[in-house]
Write a structure and sequence with these properties.
By secondary structure, this protein is an alpha/beta fold. It has 15 helices and 9 strands. It has 2 domains: 227 residues, TIM Barrel, CATH 3.20.20; 74 residues, Four Helix Bundle (Hemerythrin (Met), subunit A) (Up-down Bundle).
Length: 315
């Protein structure tokens, strides 16, 4: 979800669900230590609960990055051991670390010693020619021994040799039953399942076997799915998407005064109304106008007006 789930995306998603735990895009420990920290780690107070996803393989650097992140007010620090991109591999972090569970355990132990926040792990089943029955269990056992109690498992192997990062999201077969078995073997651990889950019905079925469900691309490409999360899983009420959109307009207005370009915020809501009358006109108006010089909150209001007009005409 790198370059997708930025702070603006997360604010929109929070307006659709008060309870779902949100994750940042992955940030490397080196970037936190050397880069512009406010730009990399800053977030809106409305995003809570929100977890920072870190990448890296140096226990000392990860510990320091975790300390810095704790100062920003995050609710959780998550170590990514699942990203299959070439850039990630060259930096010795992400999915390639599935081959080094001892090192990962050293990293999370150092991170836990540095902060009071929960430190969690997101991983794959394994990589390349690894036996996933062995590799997943080895990763979880090592990290659990280091004190980690929460694991988000993308139920696919990553093929670092022969598949692109995009192909790694779809081509390797899903093995949900393996994740279920690992949960059954470790009832004291919190196991969250991820990968290929597109509907809340599917999420509910998974929750018969595991403790949580992580949605990635489904939540980004069809954000309206989040509007049903609170009522279905947290005892809340369904969220009105139109009201959420209006609340996002207020956020957009505030950020525009800080110099944030309109399109960096509206791009996350292009598919918010997919399948609804007027959605195509809404999306086209934003796509064509949000990048223009002088684009402002009225540009977004004009796009939303297509939806209101279409609803009125259909009434």
């Amino acid at each position: 979800m790198m370059e997708w789930t930025d702070t603006h995306c997360r604010v929109l998603h929070r307006l659709l669900s008060k309870n779902a735990l949100l994750y940042t895009e992955m940030v490397t420990a080196d970037a936190v230590l050397r880069g512009h920290r406010e730009r990399l780690l800053g977030f809106d107070a409305s995003e809570h609960p929100v977890a920072l996803q870190l990448g890296g393989s140096d226990p000392v650097k990860l510990a320091e990055a975790s300390r810095i992140a704790e100062g920003f007010g995050y609710d959780e620090i998550n170590l990514n051991v699942g990203c299959p991109s070439d850039r990630v591999q060259s930096g010795r972090f992400g999915a390639c670390l599935m081959r080094e569970p001892v090192l990962v355990a050293e990293c999370v132990a150092a991170m836990r010693a540095a902060v009071r926040l929960p430190v969690t792990v997101k991983c794959r089943l394994g990589v390349d020619d690894q036996d996933t029955e062995v590799s997943l269990r080895a990763m979880i056992a090592r990290c659990a021994a280091a004190g980690v109690t929460i694991f988000a498992v993308h139920a696919r192997k990553a093929w670092l040799e022969g598949l692109s990062p995009k192909e790694n999201r779809d081509v390797p077969p899903l093995d949900y039953p393996l994740v279920y078995r690992v949960k059954a073997e470790n009832p004291h651990l919190t196991i969250v399942i991820n990968g290929g889950i597109a509907t809340l019905d599917e999420a509910e079925e998974h929750l018969r076997h595991v403790d949580g469900v992580m949605l990635g691309r489904a939540a980004y490409h069809s954000p309206a799915i989040l509007a049903g999360v609170d009522a279905r899983f947290f005892g809340g009420v369904p969220v009105d998407i139109n009201a959420a959109a209006q609340a996002y307009v207020a956020y957009v207005e505030r950020k525009l005064t800080e110099g944030v370009p309109l399109n960096t915020m509206t791009k996350h809501m292009l598919n918010l109304f997919s399948g609804r009358p007027g959605a195509r006109l809404f999306r086209r108006h934003l796509s064509e106008n949000a990048t223009r010089k002088g684009a402002n909150a009225q540009t977004l209001r004009n796009a939303l007006a297509f939806l209101e007009r279409t609803r009125a005409e259909a009434a």
